[in-house]
Amino acid sequence: MKVAVAGCCHGALDKMYETLELLQRRHNVWPDLLLCCGDFQAVRNEADLRCMAVPAKYRHMQTFYRYYSGEKKAPVLTVFIGGNHEASNHLQELPYGGWVAPNIYYLGYAGVVRFRGVRIGGISGIFKSHDYRKGHFECPPYNQQTIRSAYHVRNIEVFKLKQLKRPIDIFMSHDWPRSIYHYGNKKQLLKMKSFFRQEVESNTLGSPAASELLQHLKPTYWFSAHLHVKFAAFMQHETNTKEELPKATKFLALDKCLPHRDFLQIIDVEHDPNAGDSLEYDAEWIAILKATNCLVNVTPSSWNMPEKNGLHAKWDYSVTEEAIKEVLEELNHDLKIPCNFTLTAACYDPSKPQKNMEPVHTINPQTTEFCAQFGLTDINDRIQQAKEEGSGRGECEEEEEEEMDSAGSAEEPSEYNTDNSGLSSFNPDEIMLDEEGGDEDLSTCSVDPSPDHPPEFSTSFSDIRIMPDSMAVSSDDATDSNNEELDKSGGSKQGEERSPTERSLKRIGGDENGNSGVKKIKRRNQAIYAAEDEDKTD
């Protein structure tokens, strides 16, 4: 089947679907499925805009609300993950995934689904070390810290995904797996994005959590976005046993959705011709959610996932074939995801703007139904209970710690070395736009954005390398001692990591006298939300 993959959508759904229709008219190519790798921006109304971590000047409604209201319907089944520029209050309603509009499905904080027999997984958000070991405690109305921490990846989601044993065909992350740039045309990448050189050379660009998942899951395809540049890589994985067949991952990062960008790719993926056309639950993933339900944490306290270090009665939460069979029996072997989309907020009306609309914490009926069906904890319901009992976060910590005694605790030691000063991760909340290069294609895919050549995916990659064991990272790689010290001494602005990011910004934005050039940095960071600004810098 044909799968279209898009990078950062930034709410431009009309533009994205119009591009697909243009391909069909010119080349008679139509995808069976569309995947979006984050920054989808499912903004329904003015309150959602207030929950999106972008400068107020660039909070534009875009076109998602038309699909939410029913005015329009996505012409192709669309599955997406969250990024770092999202209406976090909306996506938070669906921690386990769900429909944000008819025919548009969100994978949740982490998730696995099936379509025509193809197994698709993903993890939402971006990696930030200072939030990685916390629970999902944020809820609207957000403050300057939680509006960002709400989309930061948590160790519990990575832990759940690492319990998967069955092969994954496609995996999506918003930020790149750390080190993936060593498996593609790194020279060309740095020619285009020269301000990443220090982080690439020190191997700190990207997400160590995604790198860990890449090594564990070894999917056939891995798609990312975030850095607003197209880049392809081919990674040959090491085998653990002589009997294990070699596995390789084709990695592709997509650009953002702009008319002059090659932001969309169509690939051919082997599928089950006998499978139906409906999006389906994945039985193993549902079983894992049930097995790990006791680990749910809605406090801001940092804690480690269960490890085989003598401190936990149980550390392996992977599921048996029997547990998977039980899920199938619960569903009567009907894995079809119900089309139970429900409006949970007022839709934007251009003729009646409501600039003062405030966001509220909402329990989504889809999540309620899903949790009831599989016996799971509704994270948002738990957060609301905690708020009613006391301060909203701290009051429920003792109860949570008691529940996690046999599985994980707030500050227990880890078997891994917690000195991670060399493993800091440069992963900007705001993407800088360089002024040094054009729009060259950094992949080795046979892609020609001209009208005469439809996009296609080629496996003719220039580099094939083996991923060394040293790329593996533990959950404690989240503890970046250098960044923590900087946060304490300098005050992290709005909860963001400053160490590598700020150094990089000063290196780019400073004037010849060594000044930090704050105004220039701000303009460049904000430019990603305005096409006209980018046109000026390209």
UniProtKB/TrEMBL annotation:
Q: Which GO terms describe its molecular function?
A: metal ion binding; RNA lariat debranching enzyme activity
- Which Pfam family is one of this chain's hits? Metallophos
Q: Where is the composition biased (Basic and acidic residues)?
A: 386-395, 485-510
Enumerate the UniProt keywords alphabetically: Hydrolase, Iron, Manganese, Metal-binding, mRNA processing, Nucleus, Zinc
Q: Which PANTHER family match?
A: LARIAT DEBRANCHING ENZYME (PTHR12849:SF0), RNA LARIAT DEBRANCHING ENZYME (PTHR12849)
Annotated region Disordered: the residues are 386-538
**What organism, scientifically named, is this protein from?**
Phainopepla nitens
Q: Which cofactor does it need?
A: Zn(2+); Fe(2+); Mn(2+)
Q: Which residues form the Lariat debranching enzyme C-terminal domain?
A: 235-380
Give the location in the cell: Nucleus
Q: Which family does it belong to?
A: Belongs to the lariat debranching enzyme family.
Keyword Manganese tagged? yes
Q: Which InterPro entries match?
A: Calcineurin-like_PHP, DBR1_C, Dbr1_N, Metallo-depent_PP-like
Composition bias, kind Acidic residues: at what positions? 396-405, 431-442
The domain of life for this entry's organism is Eukaryota
Tell me what this protein is called. Answer: DBR1 enzyme
SMART domains per the UniProt record, alphabetical:
DBR1
The UniProt entry's GO biological process terms, in alphabetical order, are: mRNA splicing, via spliceosome
Question: What does UniProt give as GO cellular component?
Answer: nucleus
